[in-house]
Specification:
The complex is a heterodimer of chains A (287) and B (397).
Chain A lengths: L12 H28 L18 H7 L11 H32 L5 H13 L2 H15 L5 H26 L2 H9 L4 H12 L1 H17 L2 H6 L7 H7 L9 H21 L1 H8 L7
Helix pairs in contact in A: 1-12, 2-12, 3-6, 3-9, 3-11, 4-6, 6-9, 7-8, 9-13, 11-12
Chain B lengths: L3 E10 L2 E11 L4 E5 L6 H9 L6 E6 L2 E2 L10 E4 L11 H10 L8 H15 L14 H13 L5 E5 L7 H13 L1 H5 L1 E6 L2 H7 L2 E6 L2 E6 L1 H6 L4 H6 L6 E8 L2 E4 L5 E3 L10 E7 L5 E2 L10 E14 L2 E8 L2 E8 L9 E7 L4 E4 L9 E4 L28
Parallel strand pairs in B: 3-8, 3-9, 6-7, 7-8
Antiparallel strand pairs in B: 1-2, 1-4, 4-5, 9-10, 11-12, 11-14, 12-13, 14-20, 15-19, 16-17, 16-19, 17-18, 20-21
Helix pairs in contact in B: 2-4, 3-4
The chains are: A mainly alpha (287), B alpha+beta (397).
Chain lengths: 287, 397
């Protein structure tokens, strides 16, 4: 209500109530993250305590990073971090190399069944991953993709590709086809017109799509949980290994590992933040 | 430089036929204007010639060479788009250099490129803008850059899609004059598309009037203006629109329904055995009768009552009730009559067009004028635009 009357702020009971509700929601949604940060700073002796005042320690982070699959758990944590970067980076690169031309074609040309094809691609995202995991497991075992980086890239691009194609298609649709037509009449081939004119103009879209695809791939848990064992295990799966699985559970180490695991996408997101908002609107609004 | 032949060209978008069996022939170096309301298929025509859309039927020949299956970048045509289509990420200089760098429009050294761009930007008055991006330009400047990208290179054909449409009225008039003086324009075959009849009349060597994708009439500006093929063409040209008045043919006289206008059937026009016709009188051909007006047998006089007078600077637009009809008169403001006043109007009989009576304007074919002219121009019409035989009844060969 206050925004409707610029220059004059009205304080009404309704507005106050709305502000309080927003604040409550804010605290409620951020509390688990706060709790995780606190837990990561506690010693093993204090890991089940619920108090907020204690002497913080960074020791957990050191312990997590120094895991080499021998001492506390079967985890090699730095290896897992590297695996995550390889798997997700690979999946994003594959998604971009194949997805950008696909999005361009889908945005520019209509043919019989083109919409169905696009929807079918999106439907990968609708199906629960658990539905396909058993057949995938069997296939991966027989083909020899189990616990391999290539196998992980292959399965993660199922997650990232539809995202890239759908986001970038709307970016290409927002571009006037007359720009490429002008390039054709300037004497450039269709391929050159695409590379020279269309591609540079959707750069913000590519950045946003790549980032989102990376985050979705990074956060994926079910595929690597079933399809890797140790060699290609990513950070999402490695984190849970600190929960023990029969042995002792290290909640403080789990929290520290999860925090480290959340860092790379966070840093990435912050660096290309200005593209992100536009990307999330799926290119619906013209700049 | 080359001729352009369009033969039976048809383009459909789903159920809509954008261009319908079009046949046009452009001479070498001719400045040819396609005039039509929006949605008439003008842009589709240009893009078909350019090869940007695949035509469904017919063929396009440039310089005698069939263009079918030839990619746009092999056709050596240059086009200015209505949307300008300037590359947003490139500066004005880079935009203008783009056709020179592709290698398909000829080989230009860096020195040549700079020289050509210099020449064209000086002509168009956009020299100081070379380092700017399109988003930093006004619409008028963008339009000049788009035109520059066409003129900077040699091409067989220039295709110009409403290049002046987004400009304000003053700038449009100025650019129209400039376009006419551009040497490149006069030496290169150009296909120019517009919905503005003044542009068409002032720029075109010849004009084709397009309606629903069909060519209605092709002719010189004078032919199109003085002998419109049908009432649609007559209405397309002129602002305010031509007055169309229903009339009957009774005993050798043509009489307006409700009285008012009445004159003899001209001797060179065969209207058969009576029936109905439509009279077309351009508002600018009508004048108010005053004490020192010219008079004589060549003039048709009618009485009416002014019910609306609209002052437009130098001119006044009067809406006058004549019989049952409302007739618009464009007159100079010194002779203007006031609203409610009774006036007498006059028009030269030879400026009164006779059209066949029909439901829609397309079928109101011009039969002739109310009085014989010293010379009638011969108008070329295409097969597609020729009306059926019955309507053609009184039309002279």
């Amino acid at each position: 209500m206050a925004e409707l009357m610029p220059g004059r702020k009205r304080v009404t009971p309704g507005a106050i109530a709305a502000d309080v509700l927003v604040l409550v929601w804010f605290v409620f949604s951020l509390f688990p993250i706060l709790w995780m940060v606190l837990l990561a700073l506690k010693t093993s002796a204090e890991q089940t305590s619920t108090y907020f005042v204690f002497t913080p320690t960074l020791e957990n982070f050191g312990t997590v990073v120094s895991q080499r699959g021998t001492d506390l758990t079967s985890v090699d944590f730095t290896r897992a971090l590297l695996n995550s970067i390889l798997n997700c980076g690979g999946a994003v690169i594959v998604s971009l190399v194949v997805g950008i031309p696909a999005a361009y074609a889908a945005g520019r040309w209509k043919y019989r069944g083109s919409e169905d094809l696009m929807f079918q691609m999106l439907s990968f995202r609708f199906a629960p991953e658990l539905m396909v995991i058993v057949p995938l497991f069997v296939i991966y075992n027989q083909v020899g993709l189990f616990d391999s980086t290539f196998g992980q890239i292959w399965v993660l691009q199922l997650v990232s590709m539809p995202l890239v194609v759908w986001i970038l298609r709307s970016y290409f649709q927002d571009l006037s086809p007359e720009l490429e037509q002008a390039a054709l009449l300037d004497g450039y081939t269709r391929k050159r017109a695409f590379v020279m004119v269309a591609l540079p103009l959707v750069r913000p879209g590519i950045a946003a799509a790549a980032l989102l695809a990376f985050i979705f791939a990074w956060n994926n848990y079910v595929f690597p949980l079933i399809l890797t064992d140790s060699a290609a295990t990513p950070v999402t799966v490695a984190v849970t290994k600190f929960l023990g699985g029969g042995g002792q559970a290290y909640y403080n180490l789990t929290a520290a590992a999860a925090l480290i695991g959340a860092l790379p996408p966070l840093v990435l997101a912050l660096t290309i933040q200005r593209y992100l908002v536009r990307g999330l609107s799926f290119g619906a609004v013209k700049a | 430089m080359a001729t352009v032949e369009i033969q039976g060209m048809t383009k459909r978008y789903g159920k809509i036929t954008a261009v319908d069996d079009m046949t046009l022939s452009l001479g070498d170096g001719e400045f040819f204007v396609v005039l039509g309301p929006s949605g008439a298929g003008k842009t589709t025509t240009l893009k078909s010639v350019a090869g940007l859309v695949d035509i469904d039927d017919g063929e396009v020949k440039i310089g005698g060479r069939t263009m079918t299956q030839l990619e746009p970048y092999h056709r050596n045509v240059a086009m200015a788009f209505e949307s300008y289509a300037l590359y947003p990420q490139k500066t004005v200089f880079e935009n203008l250099a783009s056709p020179l760098k592709s290698g398909r429009t000829g080989n230009y050294s860096a020195q040549d490129q700079k020289q050509r761009i210099d020449l064209v930007t000086t002509t168009l008055g956009i020299n100081p803008l070379l380092k700017r991006f399109p988003r930093e330009l006004s619409n008028g400047q963008r339009q000049r850059v788009a035109l520059g990208r066409v003129l900077v290179r040699e091409a067989d054909v220039y295709l110009l899609d409403e290049p002046l449409s987004h400009l304000d009225a003053k700038l449009r008039a100025a650019m129209r004059a400039e376009l006419k003086q551009l040497g490149e324009m006069s030496s290169t075959t150009s296909l120019y598309v517009t919905h503005d009849y003044q542009e068409a009349l002032s720029l075109g060597d010849r004009i084709a009037v397009l309606h629903h994708g069909k060519v209605v009439q092709v002719g010189t500006p004078e032919q199109i203006w003085r002998e419109p093929q049908n009432a649609f063409v007559a209405k397309e040209l002129g602002q305010p629109e031509i007055n169309l008045i229903d009339a009957e043919v009774v005993e050798g006289r043509i009489r307006q329904a409700g009285g008012g206008i009445e004159f003899d059937v001209p001797r060179d026009v065969d209207l058969g055995r009576g029936g109905r016709v439509r009279l077309g009188i351009r508002p600018s051909d009508l004048e108010l009768v005053t004490a020192d007006s010219r008079s004589g047998a060549e003039w048709l006089r009618v009485r009416g009552a002014v019910h609306l007078a609209e002052r437009l600077g130098r001119n006044v637009e009067l809406a006058v009730h004549v019989g049952d009809a409302e007739v618009i008169v464009l007159t100079s403001s010194e002779h203007a009559a006031r609203e409610g006043e009774s006036v007498e109007l006059q028009v030269r009989l030879r400026e009164v067009h006779l059209f066949a009576a029909a439901e829609d304007d397309d079928h109101c074919v011009r039969i002739g004028a109310a009085a014989p002219r010293e010379r009638e121009l011969t108008t070329t019409t295409t097969k597609a635009a020729t009306p059926s035989d019955s309507e053609q009844g009184g039309r002279r060969a």
